[in-house]
Specification:
This protein has 188 residues and is of the alpha/beta class. The protein is 22% helix and 24% strand. Strands 2-5-8-13-16-18-19 form a 7-stranded mixed beta sheet. It has a 5-stranded parallel beta sheet with strand order 1-4-7-12-15, with helices on one face. Acetyltransferase implicated in the O-acetylation of Nod factors.
Length: 188
């Protein structure tokens, strides 16, 4: 049996984003984002209810401050006590997982969406995705970008404005473009 374009997308295979089923999901997500972002002044319980109806998983006490932007929503899992500040973007063509207690600064962008390096499939309009996994108790500074396929280990720190192009080890601190490990400074 042939896979649908949506099944290919979710599996991280090459797919055609113009497929009617995928376009219907995008349209439904746009309507949801209008509702979610309009709920900025609403009580936290109301915003949580909106997240629960749309995301794969929403942990207890997870907070996403509007405005927030994503491709689909149903591929996003956010853990207990995780926090995402204003103006974050998640391109969730496949799974994006954010661990318990992770703190994400404003304007952070997390990309699971990717494009072929070979120009021919790009000319044909094909795309694919690679899952992004962010561990527990991670701190991501404002304006950071996490590219497709990256795993960030538990307790890591990503400096503001960094572009994370490779996996980040648990407990590591990375910064820069591209993000590289930096020496820990004593706090005090």
């Amino acid at each position: 049996m042939d896979k649908s374009e949506k099944q290919k997308m979710l599996a991280g295979e090459l797919y055609r984003p113009g497929d009617p089923e995928i376009q219907a999901d995008i349209a439904a997500n746009k309507a949801w984002m209008v509702r979610y972002n309009a709920a900025s002044a609403a009580p936290p319980a109301e915003r949580r209810a909106l997240l629960l109806e749309h995301f794969a998983h929403v942990g207890a006490h997870a907070v996403i401050r509007p405005p927030f932007f994503c491709d689909y929503g149903f591929n996003i899992s956010i853990g207990d006590g995780a926090f995402m500040n204003f103006n974050c973007v998640i391109l969730d063509v496949c799974s994006v997982t954010i661990g318990d207690g992770t703190q994400i600064g404003p304007a952070v962008q997390i990309y699971a969406a990717d494009h072929p390096r070979d120009p021919e499939p790009r000319r044909e309009g094909l795309e694919f995705g690679r899952p992004v996994v962010i561990g527990r108790n991670v701190w991501i500074g404002g304006g950071a970008i996490i590219v497709p396929g990256v795993t960030v280990g538990d307790d890591a720190v990503i400096g503001a404005g960094s572009v994370v192009t490779r996996d980040v080890l648990p407990g590591a601190t990375v910064a820069g473009n591209p993000a590289r490990p930096i020496r820990k400074r004593s706090e005090g």
